[in-house]
């Protein structure tokens, strides 16, 4: 995600700098082992940085009543972030990716076998933390890992599929991205002792926010620069992953769609990728995807109706639109 995300209302709440330091310290501590080699590999993307939005969401959920969050809320968010990082280790192996967050991927630096095992280790640490927070949290995190796998499988089974449906795309991004945001918010509510109505509203919010997050990420993959992304532009196209802007361009019934369809369905060389990018950028597919993201912004804001009035609730209301603004800055003059 681009640096503009640093202005998110979630990150600007009073006291959030201190909470983010707590999150960062807890994440680093969670992967320390008796083996310095494993610790280094498991810490690789933690050290590389990141906004830590999933644990931040857990903390904001925990702060709805205005009280400082207890360490267990931070730990719950850290468990979600470790699941995310473990999935990135595995994704980079599958994609044969060489860079992530502006640094070498684990697989590029240490090899696929180490990356897979280190990813498994991160998932195991996440599960251990969740178990310490109670059976409900442990069961929820385990189910979420299953949702991530289901979403990834849905994506893989439609690799290079120019007939992929929007239903497939939405199911995939809900499983592999949005569900973890929903879980992070839900865990923050559970561990903080919120009532069930509030916990369910937080879950709905997190799921909708996560959908905005992934659609924004997919648009940026087609519109942002390599410097902004920290990875090559058009990577999904090269990998045969056809996201919402591409699917809507293919469905527009114009000659552009025919040319794009003729290019896709197979691996692309650099020239073919650039032409495919130009075709998608020339049509309304990107704008249409942004409209779809706005719908999920509305769903997230509506979920906040059940969260009462507080600085944290206000930040949650404002955050989805601020997230969408990060992509609008790359698609408007």
Task: Give a brief rundown of this model.
This protein is 74% helix and 1% strand.
Secondary structure elements and pairings:
Elements: H1 9-12, H2 16-30, H3 36-48, H4 53-62, H5 71-95, E1 99-100, E2 103-104, H6 106-110, H7 112-132, H8 135-156, H9 166-191, H10 196-223, H11 226-229, H12 235-238, H13 244-250, H14 255-263, H15 270-282, H16 285-303, H17 311-331
Antiparallel strand pairs: 1-2
Describe this structure in words.
- This protein is mainly alpha-helical and about 325 residues long.
- It has one domain: Farnesyl Diphosphate Synthase.
- Helix content is about 75%, strand content about 0%.
- It has helices spanning about 10, 15-30, 35-50, 55-60, 70-95, 105-110, 110-130, 135-155, 165-190, 195-225, 225-230, 235-240, 245-250, 255-265, 270-280, 285-305, 310-330; strands at about 100, 105.
- The protein has a two-stranded antiparallel ribbon.
- Helix 2 (about 15-30) crosses helix 5 and helix 13 (about 245-250) packs across helix 16 (about 285-305).
Low-confidence stretches: none
Give the % helix: over 70%
CATH fold node name:
Farnesyl Diphosphate Synthase
Radius of gyration: 19 Å
Question: What key phrases describe this protein's structure?
Answer:
single chain, 333 residues, mainly alpha, Farnesyl Diphosphate Synthase, two-stranded antiparallel sheet, 17 helices, 2 strands, globular
